[in-house]
Amino acid sequence: MTNKHNPLLNLSNACIFALWIGPKYIEIPYVINLLSLVTVILYSSCHYSLTLRKDQALARGEIDPALPKDAQEKVTTETLAQEDAKLFPIMGSLSLFSLYCAFRFFDKDTVNLILSAYFGLIGCGAITVTLSPLVGKALTPLTSIVFQRELKIPHSLPNMIGGDSPWDLSYEFTMADVVAFGGSVAATGVYLMKKQWIMNNAIGICFCLQGIEKFSLGTYKIGAILLVGLFFYDIFWVFGTDVMVTVAKSLDGPIKILFPKSLTPDPITQKIELSLLGLGDIVIPGFFLSLLLRFDAHQANLPVFPTNPHASFPKPYFYSGLAGYVLGMATTMFVMIQFEAAQPALLYLVPACLGSSITTAMLRGEWKDLLAYSEEVEEEEEEVKAKKVEKKDD
Q1: Which SS3 state, helix, strand or coil, does residue 165 take?
Q2: DSSP element (H, E) containing 149
Q3: Does 380 score more than 80 pLDDT?
Q4: Residues with catalytic roles
Q5: What is the dihedral of CA 323, 328, 329, 334, to 10 degrees?
Q6: Burial class (CB in 10 A: 0-12, 13-18, 19+), 177
Q7: Cβ neighbourhood burial of 72 (10 Å; 0-12, 13-18, 19+)
Q8: Helices marked H in 312-378
Q9: Which residues pair with residue 278 across a beta bridge?
């Protein structure tokens, strides 16, 4: 295991850009375009999720010599609890059916207008966070200009709803963040006005990158529970009803990535025919694959401090999981084209991802290690850390 630079990560990032902008000018078979784009999105986002190992270590009370003590005390991590994983398909079903009812009983354009405003807001944030490191690298002096702000917002809500009053907000950003924010506002504005498929994809790709990079499933068991639950969720809503397909076709927002089947517009509608893939079919398996990659890093004793997404180390679980995902997605596309009907992608992706990881663990004799691996911060550790912070404040 070495810490050499990983050229594949830079190549993957370049491919994301090329596969985003390229199909607008070059006709690429949409199946190849889809499989290639989701593969490089997963490769890049999972590798950047290695930074979660540092956050998790800090949340457990470990010390990073490169960070000041006050910065280490503020670190928190987002992990999925087992109870939430079990409820996820139910909550997803309620949200999906609510959208279906909204499109059935209310004006479709009004619903899309409201949702567009919402997605525009969070899309602006996702693009900003994605662009900021690139702006910082291109214009390094901008990263030295730092702004710090503190806001206290009083509220009259009950504590059980709004928490303590006032809300104490403190944040720090650089001039590079400001430039990135300006670019994201422009990009989001173009999307909201034009609703071009290429701008839809820009926001969708950023959602995928940021979601997978910053969220942890906690344990392999929780990941398996989530995938199995969504396996049945996807089958029911696609095969059992018309709800999923109706919402996907009606919702005019960046919850999907669009792939042009041809650059020649339809002679009647003057529109390009597009195929779509829901972001959930990328992000949900992406959570699982990123967990496998961090398990690979754990098994290889990859240093947590400093965290290096470009580090080179053995990745048997990640590569087998990614290969399983690509095979599952290819099977989805084959069946969809063969039968000319929408398919629940998770029907094929879940067995592929789980099967590949289980097979790898069995062949390597590491099944118990995989099940024992955990990124959760124990409640006792959190309480001890909270008490230490309180004592310092006193």
Answers
A1: coil
A2: strand 146-153
A3: no
A4: 234, 281
A5: 130
A6: buried
A7: middle
A8: 316-339, 346-364, 367-372
A9: 256
Structure letter (DSSP) for residue 218? -
In 178-282, beta strands by DSSP E: 256-260, 274-278
Higher pLDDT, 62 or 231: 231
Coil, helix or strand for 375?
Answer: coil
Whole-angstrom distance, CA of residue 213 vs CA of residue 46 = 6
Question: Exposed/middle/buried for 206, CB within 10 Å: 0-12, 13-18, 19+?
Answer: buried
- Quote the CA–CA distance of 243 and 250 in Å, as a whole number: 10
Residue 115 CA: distances (Å) to CA of 106, 129, 187, 203: 13, 21, 17, 14
With tokens 């190849």, the residue in question is: 32
Answer yes or no: are the C-beta atoms of 257 and 279 closer than 8 Å.
Answer: yes
For 230-287, the pLDDT digits (tens) are: 999 999 999 998 898 888 888 888 889 999 988 888 777 778 888 889 999 999 999 9
Percentage of residues in the chain having pLDDT higher than 70: 86
pTM of the shown model: 0.87
Buried b (16+ CB within 10 A) or exposed e, 105-140: eeeeeebbeebbeebbeebbebbbbbbbeebbeeee
Which among 139, 167, 166, 344 is positioned nearest to 248, based on CA atoms? 344
Give the burial class of 387: count Cβ atoms within 10 A of its Cβ; 0-12 exposed, 13-18 middle, 19 or more buried: exposed
Return d(Cα 218, Cα 79) in angstroms, integer. Answer: 5
- Which carries the bigger pLDDT value, residue 223 or residue 59? 223
Instruction: Give the model's pLDDT for residue 154.
Output: 75
Q: What does residue 152 show for φ and ψ, rounded to 5 degrees?
A: -120, 115
pLDDT at 171: 66
Q: Is the pLDDT of residue 387 over 50?
A: no
